[in-house]
Amino acid sequence: MLPKPETLLGGLSAREFLRDFWQQKPLLVRQAWPGFQPLLDPETLAGLALEPEVESRLIRETADGWQLQHGPIAETTFQQLPESHWTLLVQDMDKLLPELQTVLDAFRFLPDWRLDDLMVSYAATGGSVGAHVDQYDVFLLQASGTRRWDIDRRPGAPLPERDDVPLRQLRQFEASDSWVLKPGDMLYLPPGVPHLGVALDPCMTFSIGFRAPTDEELLAELLQTLLESGDQPTFFTDPGRAPCKHPAVLDNGSLRRARELIRLRLARLDDRHLDRIFARTVTQGKPGFEDRAPDSSLSMDQLRQQLTAGCELSAHPALRVALLDDLPAGWCFIEGEEYRLDTERHAMLRTLTARRTVNGEDLLPWIDQPDCMTLLLELINQGHWELVGDEHE
Questions:
Q1: What is the pLDDT of residues 326-369, one digit of tens each?
Q2: May I ask the CATH class of domain 14-210?
Q3: Buried b (16+ CB within 10 A) or exposed e, 182-218
Q4: I want to staple 73 with a disulfide (CB 3.0 to 4.6 A). Which of 49, 68, 254, 351 is the partner?
Q5: Are 84 and 122 in contact (CB under 8 A)?
Q6: Whose CA is closest to 145, among 41, 243, 5?
Q7: CA–CA separation, 323 vs 9, rounded Å?
Q8: pLDDT value for 393
Q9: CATH classification of 300-388 is 3.40.50.720, yes or no?
């Protein structure tokens, strides 16, 4: 396990970083993680890219232009790669290799629902994906080798993309800043900053990417909520209308009544309804990681025995969970599913979700409360949490 770095933000506190840099401007931190070890080698990364369920990409820059190949990548393809100018990228490494969760733990000054994944890239000398722009926050941690990062932080930097390559590359790019990152160095980039990374020698980069819901995603969840509410629909009405002047024309009175009908329906949703729509949206499970139920179910007696014995409970690497306080009670949202909590279950879930792994002894205050244990047993048998102990390794 990697020790948590004390210099991750270069002497800034989390509060100072979030106030002055987050979603505002880039930050370069030399030796953000001194002595960083990547915990995997290029062969392991390539091995994962062979698997059909793993999201991977192989990008090559050749004399004939850029080439993009989505995984699974055939083993013969790796054997035929040249010595330079190619990059392998594998998404969701935090879920594929749970030991890499220790990397993400260092960034938990940001909420879990904001995190997307840990992407690991291995690049041969000269390897790159071209100049581009991301619409998410990312921390680029150099894991091995050296990479040069060029960015364009100028306001109004041109963002049009090329249409002659299979990648989302910028049509033009001019660097305003350039740095060479060595192992342990880190570059933070907010959304919308044009950047270009080029491997100066064989190197590995860890990209800790964050996500944000779009207005379209929130509206889609809102619509689904309205459709599933069970409320009786309100029909359009138009008493006292005048004869139409043209049978195909929508008259102003009908349009006004339709707008009022929609606004009245939306007005039924108070702030708490909207909060829950947001919570369901940001905890939707990531495709490809839905199947997590254990082979055998745990019984209530086994659960109580293991908690008493001091086992650990570890959250599934792909788990997306959020709490919505309505003190002293609240809601818990797991993979888009909503759980209404009373005071005691709310307190238990706050303890359970405070860390990725908690000691069973921390949950002993609720061991004799049936509602709490029933919920905990359900979450374990659904695979959202796993008991880790001598009898469950």
A1: 877 899 999 999 999 999 999 999 999 999 999 999 999 999 99
A2: mainly beta
A3: ebbbbbbbbeebbbbbbbbebbbbbbbbbeeeeeeeb
A4: 49
A5: no
A6: 41
A7: 27
A8: 42
A9: no
What does the block give as tokens for 368?
């004799």
What are the sequence ranges of the domains in the chain?
Answer: 14-210, 215-282, 300-388
Q: Which residue has the tokens 């994906």?
A: 129
pTM to 2 decimals?
0.91
- Which stretch of DSSP H or E encloses residue 366? none
Please compute, for residue 315, the number of CA atoms within 13 A of its CA located in the half-sphere on the CB side: 23
Q: Read off the pLDDT of residues 119-159 as tens digits, 9 standing for 90 and up.
A: 999 999 999 999 999 999 999 999 999 999 999 999 888 88
The Cα 117–Cα 38 span in angstroms is 16
Give me the phi and psi of 13, to 5 degrees please: -75, 160
192-159-138 Cα angle (round to 5): 25
- The Cα 251–Cα 258 span in angstroms is 11
CA distance 65 to 147: 22
The single-letter code of the amino acid at 304 is: R
Q: How many residues does the chain have?
A: 393
Q: What SS3 class is residue 138?
A: strand
Residues above pLDDT 90, as percent of the chain: 85
Tokens for 295, please give them. 């082979």
Widest pairwise Cα distance in the chain: 81
